[in-house]
Automatic annotation (TrEMBL):
Protein name, entry field: Tetratricopeptide repeat protein
Transmembrane segments: 338-358, 370-394
Lineage of producing organism: Bacteria, Bacillati, Actinomycetota, Actinomycetes, Kitasatosporales
Keywords per UniProt: Membrane, Transmembrane, Transmembrane helix
Length: 400
């Protein structure tokens, strides 16, 4: 299929007809692939929803990668991308293609030998900028990331010849985000180092939507660490503020809020993700994401129910403890009052018995008897006061 035919097909698509756009781009891409011809046109945008030339190129390279999922194909794609895509849109297209094609071919990770042989060819033909090696690095790293092979990803980005050949791009935020993803998932790397890499990628002025996605994915897939949920929630909240229509970022925010126990807010976020999930494009991917979101929604609902039951149990337990303390206090007070009453009653009986003996059996004059009764009563009163006071003092200290 020549350039004139391609332009006629793609240029004749009716504006706003998404079905025709999808069908024609798929047909043109399949024809180019059958002919062994790369797309003979330039791309001047990064609009994957409406630009027929970009959509057609995307479908073509998707067929190429499914046919031969290797870094050699990635290198050929990178060369075409540098030559055909406008510079101001190149980063967006390159990141989406490298990570997207890696995901759909994640079951074909190349061996170390295959990687070494292809790397020699790529490095020998690459420009000093390392653009081709960088794209191929992103593609292979994307496969490892999609399989959650964190240790292999860390080793590849740190020491492989292909990654080293992308030297000028080592400080690119997406490269740093992939390193952070590897660090978060590795048991041999501390969470502090992973967070430091994440912060460097996150703070970059060249941070893109794909950088944010890899960062959030890394936190989500990380081995548990202190502040894990809070970090995911905070980063996802910022991502949602910057990209309010992105369903994946709402999904990550739902995860973070769920991990922090904010079940009502998490339910709002997962509902937003389901509402924003577009019912266009690859139906298999849409179904897979929808099932994933619905499963998370069920988990949040279950957590809400458990949290409510736990709160009711805690309230019932607190009431039982409070009633138990009140009962113990009542019993303690009753026993103290009983001791005090016995002391007073004993003093009264002793005074009565002693006064009767003095009154009935004594030979002393009346005045002396009265003084004797007063002394006896005073002594017994002091005794009762000492018993009552001592009891109060001891029980007060014990209560404290």
């Amino acid at each position: 299929m020549d350039r004139v035919t391609v332009d006629a097909r793609l240029g004749g698509i009716m504006t706003g007809d998404s079905r025709q756009l999808d069908r024609v781009c798929e047909e043109v891409a399949a024809a180019l692939h059958r002919d062994g011809t790369e797309p003979p046109f330039d791309v001047g945008s990064s609009d994957f929803a409406a630009d027929p030339y970009l959509i057609c190129a995307d479908r073509y390279w998707r067929l190429r990668f499914l046919d031969l999922p290797s870094i050699r194909t990635a290198a050929a794609c990178a060369v075409w991308l540098v030559e055909r895509v406008a510079e101001e849109h190149r980063t967006e297209v390159a990141e989406r293609w490298a990570l997207g094609y890696a995901f759909i071919t994640k079951d074909t990770v190349e061996s170390a030998r295959e990687l070494a042989e292809a790397t020699e060819e790529i490095v020998s033909r690459d420009s000093p900028s390392g653009d081709v090696a960088y794209f191929a690095t992103l593609y292979h790293a994307g496969k490892l990331r999609s399989n959650f092979w964190s240790d292999e990803l860390h080793q590849f980005l740190s020491s492989s010849l292909l990654a080293l050949a992308a030297g000028p791009h080592h400080e690119e935020p997406l490269f740093l985000a992939l390193r952070a993803f590897a660090a978060f998932g590795s048991r041999a790397i501390t969470s502090e180092h992973a967070v430091s890499l994440l912060d460097r990628a996150w703070a970059s002025p060249r941070r893109t939507r794909h950088v944010i996605d890899v960062c959030l994915n890394g936190i989500y897939a990380a081995s548990p660490f202190e502040g894990h949920g809070e970090l995911l929630r905070a980063r996802a909240e910022e991502a949602v503020r910057d990209h309010p229509r992105d369903h994946m970022f709402h999904f990550r925010l739902a995860w973070g809020r769920h991990m922090c126990g904010e079940h009502d807010a998490a339910l709002d976020s997962i509902d937003a993700a389901l509402r924003l999930l577009p019912a266009v494009g690859n139906r298999g991917s849409h179904k897979l994401l929808q099932e994933q979101y619905l499963n998370k929604r069920d988990a949040i609902q279950e957590a809400r129910v458990r949290a409510r039951l736990d709160a009711e149990h805690r309230l019932r337990w607190d009431r039982q403890e409070r009633a138990q303390r009140e009962l113990e206090e009542a019993l303690r007070t009753s026993s103290v009052r009983a001791v005090e009453l016995v002391a007073v009653f004993t003093a009264a009986i002793a005074f009565a018995v002693g006064s009767l003996q003095v009154t009935l059996n004594g030979t002393l004059p009346l005045r002396d008897r009265l003084w004797l009764l007063a002394a006896q009563g005073g002594g017994l009163a002091v005794f009762a006061l000492l018993v009552v006071g001592g009891t109060w003092f001891l029980t007060r200290r014990r209560g404290r």
